[in-house]
Specification:
about 220 residues; single chain; TIM Barrel; alpha/beta; 8 helices; 8 strands
Amino acid sequence: MKIAPSILNADYLNLGKAIKTVEQAGADLLHIDIMDGHFVPNLSFSSALVKAAKEITTLPLDVHLMVANPASCIEDFAQNGADTLLVHAETDPHLYRVIQQIQALHVQAGIVINPGTPLSAISEYLPIVDQVLVMTVNPGFGGQHFLKNTLTKVQSLAQLRNEHNWHYNIEVDGGINEQTAPLAQQAGADIAVAGSYLFSSTEIASRIQLLKTCGTAQ
């Protein structure tokens, strides 16, 4: 399973150092949470941070748009270095158009569902998306506990992908640690976003390696 550290939980005064640390520790992607204060209560990074990160790392930038109107900022984030843009199913009634907009900019298009959103809400988009992110906590805040019932969505997504030969990656975000990462991997997840678990420790490198291997050790 690939590990995508979320810099939302890093030391904001030393973000460059944090990015370099996780890259050298073997991270596979860099997860960047964009929050607008509307779709979720908090505010976080902008496209300027994405651009700055692109200049100092070779890690693919996994940009999670927790914003009320994702279509309005797709081009900005794409031009500033996003490799994947993830939009919430709950934010736009014209999601098909948003996905096409992202892919037309030669960026991977991902769709996100909250814990309370049924998988049926995104079934029409599964043949065309590059990634599906299942929120395993409620969006907008770090440090929450993993919601195990969300694993049924991961299992269903994996089953549908196999049955139809679809190509999307399955990502989980929220409450990831050495206990929950194996559960996500066994359910079918390909990518795990980890924030508080990594950046609350002085042993970030060892924790990344533990997450990358603990699923196979079960």
